[in-house]
Amino acid sequence: MPYYRQVGEIPRKRHTQFRAPDGSLYAEELMGVEGFSSDSALLYHRHLPTAIVDAVDVTVPRDTAPNLPLKPRHFRTQDLKWEAPADVDAVTGRRLLFGNADVRICFVEATQPSPLYRNAAGDELLYVQTGTAVIETIYGSMAVGDGDYVVLPTSCTYRVVPGDDLRLLVLEASGHIGPPKRYLSTKGQFLEHSPYCERDLRGPVEPLLVDDTDVEVFVRHRAGVTKFTYANHPFDVVGWDGALYPWAFNIRDFEPITGRVHQPPPVHQTFEGPNFVVCSFCPRKVDYHPLAVPVPYNHANVDSDELMFYVGGNYEARKGSGIGLGSLSLHPSGVTHGPQPGAVEGALGVDYFDETAVMVDTFRPLELGEAADACEDPRYAWSWAKRGPDWS
Ligand SMILES: [Fe+2]
């Protein structure tokens, strides 16, 4: 994250003696990305953060298959079923929809608190489609709800405690996720033309302290998943400061950029990650030229696969395609796509779109995971021509 925060107690000078009331020294930890050459945080633990007493490999293979034959696809996460829905948590219950070397995209309907977990292979971005949760982290807690994006930096230990009806889209990146660089000053402040800024962001505000011993922590790393047992509970940080911490941002705080004629997809960009971007399509006044065509033109996303997650309202360009709330459309590189038949004519003269969608564009092809196979609507590719192998 680009700006500095401080939570809890810290010593006046970094790397100096900092003692608990009983006189013992707190254990200082530097969390630093990019080889300690970029953002970092200094955390002060009650116990040694290095003290592990067991490690067990719990890797579960997560296979994907290429998008063959290449075609536009529609997936209905609203139709996904879990074998034991009352026992699903937001970490071990994740189901893999799509993946490539840069990002894995998962979905989960969580009903139980997750185990402690951290992703050491990259940042995670959670999008709360519905419901509420408390995200407990070594930096403190954050209450989140529908429409929240939550950025969890690499190696941030956390767990998800769900409220009611929690549905999460989860992006597991192979690198770091942050605001688009073009919206930041050289020193990291959001610029005036950015659709959101520091005032829209939330982070932990007080330490979260838990006393416990022999605590399991699942760690996703570059070779799989290992379950560690820590001598003490990792939530033992009495204070921290720095520019690296988990944060949340609600999609309703994204201020859409509009114009007289149709604005290109990059105006919706919200985050950038390694070889992918995330965009927010929010309710907005639409194009106001007297002859404007408010829905998108047909477009060939030449260098990216376009994944769209429909989360609110009624997406104008997809009317008549079978897409509903919870649907995901995948429009891969190599196939031009555009509004469904009749959508252009139907949108003429409209001045407001009540639609919310999250878009992920990946620069390398997305392969399909188990959950994608489980919820695909095979008719979608033929919904422009109204005929094809699975149409009828
Ligand atoms: Fe598109």
Automatic annotation (TrEMBL):
Q: GO cellular component terms?
A: cytoplasm
Where is the chain membrane-spanning? Answer: none
Offer an example of a GO molecular function term for this protein.
Answer: homogentisate 1,2-dioxygenase activity
Q: List, alphabetically, the Pfam families matched.
A: HgmA_C (PF04209), HgmA_N (PF20510)
Question: Which residues are in the Homogentisate 1,2-dioxygenase C-terminal domain?
Answer: 281-372
Ranges where the Homogentisate 1,2-dioxygenase N-terminal domain occurs: 10-250
The entry marks the following residues as binding Fe cation, namely 299, 306, 337
Q: Which InterPro entries match?
A: HgmA_C, HgmA_N, Homogentis_dOase, RmlC-like_jellyroll, RmlC_Cupin_sf
Tell me the GO BP annotations in alphabetical order: L-phenylalanine catabolic process; tyrosine metabolic process
Q: Which cofactor does it need?
A: Fe cation
According to its UniProt record, which residues of this chain constitute the active site? 262
The residues the record assigns to binding homogentisate are 315
**Which keywords fit this entry according to its UniProt record?**
Dioxygenase, Iron, Metal-binding, Oxidoreductase
Identify its protein family. Answer: Belongs to the homogentisate dioxygenase family.
Entry protein name: Homogentisate 1,2-dioxygenase
Supply the source organism for this entry: Actinocrispum wychmicini
